[in-house]
Amino acid sequence: MQARKKYVLLGLCACCWLLLFYWGGGVQVRLLKLLGQQRGDVVRPWPDWTDRVLLPGYAQLEELQTGPGSAESPRQRHQAWTGIYKDSRCRMETCFDFTRCRRRGRDGFRVYVYPSEKGERGSESYRKILTSIGESRYYTTDPREACLFVLGIDTLDRDQLSGQFVPNLDDRIKGYPLWNEGRNHLIFNLYSGTWPNYTEDLGFNIGQAILAKASLNTEHFRPGFDVSIPLFSKDHPQKGGERGWLVRNTVPPRRKYLLMFKGKRYLTGIGSDTRNALHHIHNGKDIVSLTTCRHGKDWEKHKDARCDHDNLEYERFDYQELLHNSTFCLVPRGRRLGSFRFLESLQAACIPVLLSNGWELPFSDVIQWNQAVIEGDERLLLQVPSTVHAVGHERVLALRQRTQMLWDAYFSSVDKIVLTTLEIIKDRVFSHVSRNKYMWNALPGGLLVLPEYSTHLAHFPFYYLSLGVSPGQEFTAIIHAVSPLVSQSQPIMKLLQVVSKSKYCSQIIILWNSEKPLPPRSKWPPMPVPLTVTDGRRKTSSRFLPNVAIETEAVLSLDEDTVLLTSEVNFAFLVWMSFPERIVGYPPRSHFWDPVKNAWGYTSKWTNEYSIVLTGAAFYHRYYHYLFSHYLPPSLRALVDRTSNCEDILMNFLVSAVTHLPPIKVAQRKQYKELPSPQTVRLAPWANPEHFAQRQECVNSFASWFGYMPLVHSQFRLDPLLFKDQVSVLRKKYKDLERA
């Protein structure tokens, strides 16, 4: 009986609580609404201490909520995406035909571009993309050889309101006999969707094609299949591009402004929420966040109460001045997730602070972006100032340095953006011979590290320092021979004796490029080291072709008439071991800009400044042989072979492009060639009146291909200790050098 009373009492209590909660909560809500109507204010779900009057730096809730242009739920967006891209689950294993790429082994990665139709007018940006592919080492004109296909139709701008929108793409693409539902095709896109939602709709079915797209959403990105690329303007350079703005070892790492933004503010539509709230963090001192409504045709019809004030404040600051003098740059989303401001910040070494939720960052498969940017959250805008304030000086400097590395390696030109896209796809196709993350994220960047040479870091000269390893203790001498062998007193015979006496010499290879037949081994003198004579096939560029006979990391390149002492060879080799990524040698040359001819010039004058060390007597790493043959285009090597000239200049261009550093000259020597007899002067290549003019032309041709001048001037020279000092010769290790 007592238990029954207890249960009844508990039931009555529960009913009372439910009634109290229901009626009491309703009364409270009605009272709050009534009070709000009387005060004329909007009722906010937070206490009055966050009132705008007390804390003007905070945003109203309605400013941070979803705007009218982005009311789609995640499910609706997913349904729209799958309706457009029926193969949204594509992966390389399911939607790519590997057999097309592996028919020719490692050389099977070829890219074919469909010819443009008559009267087809593509955008300037798409023309640059196709030009980059056409000039790459992967391009082929034969579709039967192709591993990858690129459309000749411009697919960059798929906004139906744009003047560059190409209609009826579905029907046109289906007419391609090799389309095959998009398999093994690569489609480039910068702009998708249109007002007001700017969805991922491209206006045609890409099928099983790989999508290289800017502003990719992580929800729609197909990992290991698609490639996220940066949004770049039509003025982005085709080749080379400007260097980053960070001066080496800039101290202090922080600049005048801590954080900056200057850009458009959208009053309605997608992207308006984030930019409408940016004014809350602006203080006009160390944080400058400026927006303007003055853009578009009808901006005055839609302007709000804040527009006039914002426009006046906007004009007070210069954008370029802010870029150069800010430590962090806000990169909020625009109508789409990506923004031109991203690349601008990277170049300026202004650390990007991203406010673009869901953006798949460019080349995210290979680039470790946490080392270069700070990823914020659009919903937590007000936390950004405290976040960047908390970043220490060492971290700031590291982030800024990484922005420069990434800009120079992958983003400074359309060429680099396109080649990075192709290299990422190639690494997926040949995954057993591919770059690792370290290669992509360390100098000199993945484009200059060819995995076909090796996939081991210790085999590349520019990783020795970071790995804490040293190059081998021996070198291979390669002597370029062009004169017939007629006497044992020829300069090449003396050179063989000098080089073979070096305790560091492992072997000697003679590259025979004479018009006369290759002499038998018996014609050559006995050597204390292995001697190999190979046929250079009368090609000047053959001296830098990969040679399986080279067993050492160091290569000593020599002309047949070079005059050196054994001590000079030893000293230069020891210097090279400290700088294995550079060219180290004796004969210097230089380049200069001729403002009269508006062209680059070449000089052999003896001055204190140089930018080239001739490979007639120089050390370098054997990897540069592979890079010379497989990275440079055949057109440049053909130029060298056609003129029988400039191969040494081209090698200097290549090494300086890799290192961004000058070569190193060792010990002063004005003459490094054997004085020829009057009879042989006429046969010397440098005696040809056209020889010097050809070298001038070569410098300009090489600079044109690279898109900039990679050669770096230097006044640095390394001499032995006590070199030419007035002390006893007994105290000097390299006594013979002073008599050279």
What does this structure look like?
Helix content is 31%, strand content 13%. The chain has 740 residues and is α/β, with parallel strands linked by helices. The strands form four sheets. Strands 13-12-11-14-19-15-20-21 form an eight-stranded mixed beta sheet, with helices on both faces. It has a five-stranded parallel beta sheet with strand order 1-2-3-4-5. Helix 5 packs across helix 14 (414-429), helix 11 crosses helix 13 and helix 20 packs antiparallel against helix 23. It is elongated and about 120 Å long. Mean pLDDT is 85; it is low at 24-71.
Structural topology:
Elements: H1 2-39, H2 61-64, H3 74-84, H4 92-95, E1 111-113, H5 124-134, E2 148-150, H6 169-174, E3 185-189, E4 210-213, E5 227-228, E6 257-264, H7 272-276, E7 287-292, H8 299-302, H9 307-314, H10 319-324, E8 326-332, H11 340-347, E9 351-355, E10 374-375, H12 384-389, H13 393-411, H14 414-429, H15 437-441, H16 464-467, E11 475-481, H17 491-500, E12 505-512, E13 531-535, E14 554-559, H18 566-578, E15 584-585, E16 588-594, E17 599-603, E18 612-613, E19 617-621, H19 623-630, H20 634-643, H21 647-659, E20 664-666, H22 678-681, H23 689-706, E21 717-718
Parallel strand pairs: 1-2, 2-3, 3-4, 4-5, 6-7, 6-8, 8-9, 9-10, 11-12, 11-14, 12-13, 15-20, 20-21
Antiparallel strand pairs: 14-19, 15-19, 16-17, 16-18
